[in-house]
Design a protein that fits this description.
This protein is of the alpha+beta class. About 40% of the residues lie in helices and about 20% in strands. It has 22 helices and 26 strands. The N and C termini lie far apart (about 50 Å). It binds fe (ii) ion (FE2). Fe (ii) ion binds next to helix 8 and strand 8.
Length: about 625
Amino acid sequence: MKSLTLGLNFFGGHDTSIFAIFEDDVYGLSQERITRIKHDSIFPIDALHEMLRYKKIEPETIQELHVGIATLAFQKRIFNEYAYEMTTALRKMLQGSDEELYIKDFVQRKEALQSKGKVAQLMTFVKSKEGRSYLKMQFSGKKLPLDAIIEKHLRKIFPNAKIDMTFYEHHLTHAYSTYYASGFKETLVFTFDGEGDSCFSKLYEVKNGVFTELGASQNRYVENMKMYDFADSGYASVGNIYSIFTYLLGYTPNADEGKVEALAAFGNHQNRLYEDLMAAVQIDEKRMAMELDTDMLNVIFDPENLETLFEELSKEDISAALQRALEEIVLSYLSVVKAKYPYKRIALAGGVTANVIMNMKIFEELFEEMFIIPAMGDDGISQGAAIMKYLQLHPEQKESFSFSMMPYYGSVFTKEQIRGVLEKSGLSYRFLGEEAYLKAAEMIVEGKIGALFHGRCEFGPRALGNRSIIADVRNKEIQKLINKEIKKRPLFQPFCPSMLAEERERLFEKAYDNKHMTIAFKLKKEFKEQIPGAVHVDLTARVQFVSPEDNPNYYAMILRVKELTGFGVIINTSFNKHGRTMVLTPQHALRDFVDTNLDFMVMEGYLVEREGIAK
Ligand SMILES: [Fe+2]
């Protein structure tokens, strides 16, 4: 191979990732899938190596490397030239010799190290090889702008390549990612996140691959928000207000927003916080923007005000106020948009569009057709940057270029590779081929909890059947069981279903064929008792509708469940133990299988059962 087109989210503060476009294929992978540190922010060097391994590319043969990088503001941002090497050295030093490091261990051990005195810290570093090399790099390293650091990394991997690198505007990369996967030709595109290149939302009209920006909402500095550095250090946005409250409610910001969204269904939104939030955002019709009132936000985030707010209101009511305000702000903004640009369809991207209830309201009230890119967060901007770079080189494909809608863009492992790993594992396994999926259906109907590991890994936060934990949706106790044994989620947070596409009209009020679990729909009341395992208290379910062409084995399995139970529905949650990221490799899968209480696992036709492992 001579030429390679690559998109990178190299340093967005979280969710670094790579995306490559080949003549007949694409490849996307987040760095977190390799390190298993959730939302990992280190340079995605390891993801690049995994792509080269999987695609069997000899990096020395690459002569032209075309790189698109998301976010203009990062180009000249200054980092230590050994930022990646220092982080990996620190991680190795903190990790015991026989264990992998996951996010909780890493954070705890890093905090423990930081709490030591300077001399004790130094002694800890000096004692290990990794610690010594960390210190050496810290003292000898220069500070360099990001573009220079990226070039150094790429040069090491691709020694013979001419590197052609372009940085692209953050929201435009979000917009490209969703437009080219949507299948829409003419549409509105709305991007909505915490912050990217000084904006938290943008609106585009796209006609046959030509993007016209119609509006942009800007982050505004709010003195009382500056202490929350995870939320852009005081540069407020609708999205990072939500993240700050996620933190104040005791959850992890930029990760657990879905928990707040789930908790909101138990609360009453009519309270002071809701009123204040609604007063803090106005819609600027001329500029097609959401405009923040910084004075009002200073009042809301005044520490004394927050203290009384948390005394007055329950967690549920705070969550409800926050969720409802988000929905209403977006609905009033998009109503104004629609009045001026009367499109029936819209494509969404950006971290805030992970909010499935907000998306449901947008669909129910404003648009007939909707698409939300599966990698809606900043992991997905590498996809957008790759497309932008590719189209810069091939402008004639602007109209015709398209993507497979199912984001199975990661690595696959062969039967032989899996057999090799199983042989060493000491677990009991047998090869059943396609029968294994039917057997899996029977086992979950018997009340067992299983996992699927097959095909290419999903790109984006949701498991869509290739790296999934599966269970029977009819069983009320199943949610508690999965939580207790595997996921440790709060009990109020529902699991989500995968179902046959043909069940949609029978089971749901108003829904479209969403294949990616990026929106919730309301279940018809009469089915709540029959499939309670995947429905929230407000009757909503974040569902994946499965057609045979999306994933034939997964479809066949759910079809068998329908034959056995009358409902073509199962619980689908990502395959990983609590605190880890979704599994990528067979080794990850075996490790999480052994460390949890899963009853069985289907790996490319091999059925692995929990025999000989103590429960
Ligand atoms: Fe973003």
